[in-house]
Backbone:
């Protein structure tokens, strides 16, 4: 339309000025200079040439429209000579992304999507779908769906939301979070591509062509979480299991100590049972003191050997002995 308007104005001026000049010169009895006609012809040719040249920037392709009819071809980056009567519409052929989030089962904005796991838990999912438009089919997308903004809203967004819901529904919350997170990501990408193809087939494109319109890249799955209440319950369960393990350990230690003391008591009883009948109380006291000293010495030596004590003094008698373990 810009070219037609410019051409109309140019032609009007081209014919109007010579008429004015001719009127002035004829009144003076002179002829219109040939140079004026040549100059205007050259300007008209330059105007048409300028409007026949387009420069397509990197990362874009142009779709041509001839009086409302979309041309079944596109123009790639660089300089192109075209029909000046065409109007052109840019389409992005770079890698693009569509980021979506799940609002824990309550969609609150256009960028949110409801996703529920196979065990009926609403999931909080942050996922980004990556895709690239095939330049060869840009004209078809523009004609049947619209420009970059239109096909993003009417095709990409809907396909991504469908893929997120369908893929998440095949996994439990535990699988989606940990054990099958990669499988969930792959399933989302596969379902996304399938939804795109199905949509374009419904618009009249063959399946073979529909599979080539977009190149779908691996999905970027950044967050998969169940509702906050479930997260709290999982944390409480983990804490309870840790506390249970701690109690089991303490019980085991206490049982071991009790068994050791029972064995020590049994040994003492056996010792006294084997003592001669005429043993005096003073002698029994000496035996008990010796047993206590042995128990204490064993404990101290064990502490030294484990590194908890670097040196110790063994008392007894008139000459205490300092013991320093070798390193």
Residues:
């Amino acid at each position: 339309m810009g070219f037609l308007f410019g051409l109309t104005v140019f032609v009007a001026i081209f014919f109007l000025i010579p008429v004015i000049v001719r009127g002035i010169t004829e009144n003076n009895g002179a002829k219109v200079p040939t140079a004026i006609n040549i100059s205007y012809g050259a300007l008209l040719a330059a105007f048409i040439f300028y409007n026949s040249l387009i420069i397509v920037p990197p990362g874009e392709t142009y779709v041509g429209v001839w009086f409302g009819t979309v041309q079944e071809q596109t123009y790639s980056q660089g300089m192109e000579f075209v029909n000046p009567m065409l109007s052109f519409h840019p389409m992005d052929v770079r890698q693009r992304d569509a980021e979506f989030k799940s609002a824990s089962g309550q969609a609150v904005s256009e960028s949110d999507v409801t996703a529920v796991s196979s065990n009926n838990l609403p999931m909080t999912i942050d996922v980004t779908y990556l895709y690239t438009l095939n330049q060869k089919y840009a004209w078809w997308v523009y004609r049947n769906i619209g420009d970059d903004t239109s096909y993003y809203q009417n095709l990409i967004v809907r396909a991504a939301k469908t893929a997120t819901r369908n893929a998440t529904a095949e996994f439990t919350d535990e699988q989606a979070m940990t054990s099958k997170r990669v499988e969930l990501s792959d399933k989302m990408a596969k379902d996304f591509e399938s939804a795109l193809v199905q949509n374009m087939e419904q618009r009249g494109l063959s399946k073979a062509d529909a599979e080539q319109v977009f190149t779908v890249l691996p999905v970027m799955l950044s967050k998969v979480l169940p509702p906050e209440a479930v997260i709290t319950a999982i944390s409480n369960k983990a804490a309870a299991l840790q506390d249970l393990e701690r109690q089991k350990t303490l019980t085991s230690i206490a049982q071991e100590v009790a068994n050791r003391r029972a064995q020590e008591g049994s040994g003492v009883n056996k010792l006294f049972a084997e003592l001669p009948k005429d043993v005096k109380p003073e002698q029994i006291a000496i035996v008990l003191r010796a047993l206590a000293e042995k128990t204490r010495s064993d404990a101290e030596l064990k502490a030294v050997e484990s590194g908890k004590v670097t040196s110790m003094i063994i008392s007894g008698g008139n000459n205490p002995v300092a013991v320093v373990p070798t390193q």
